[in-house]
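Encode chain A's predicted structure.
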Amino acid sequence: MVTAGASLTACARVTGEMVADDDPAVMSTWWRSFRLNLRQSLAWWLPVLVLVALSAWEYLILSDSSVGEWNGGASGALSGLVLAGGVLLAAILVWLLPLAAFFDAPVHRHPVQRASSRGGASWESTMIALVIVAAPAIVFWGLAASRAAVAWFMVLIGPAFQTYLIALLQRSTMEALAGASTSES
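Encoded structure for chain A:
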């Protein structure tokens, strides 16, 4: 769990290079990115992990029947706010992973604002990326007959396939940012 941030960043690096037609050596590129981004990813992953754990705990408390009986409307609204916070966190991570993978600046100095202001990092592509991230969970809970297939897909291919699809969405933005960073140097 502690090194999941570096693993996801390395996965974003490999899939980003695949989308850019750089034909990476998958294993060596993944390990190199994992080692280079381990310390940096701990700076953002550990707080994210704490936020996710606290959000899950709060969501469970708010959805508890005794709290719901006490004030159902307030607990439902607060549960919705916790869920909205989780969606916002996922939207940030959709862009943070490739930015951390391809740019050497510390996390707090990444060009997130430039990415969103360039037009390629539009709300539409972020929403599509969130649907890609949420699709397995939606299918898992929505179609009971397909739960085993979804579970096996996520175990064997899942996060890498999702990251590849998101990298396809973000290709133009990442190329623009790479071009801007080399012209500023």
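The longest helix spans residues 26-63.
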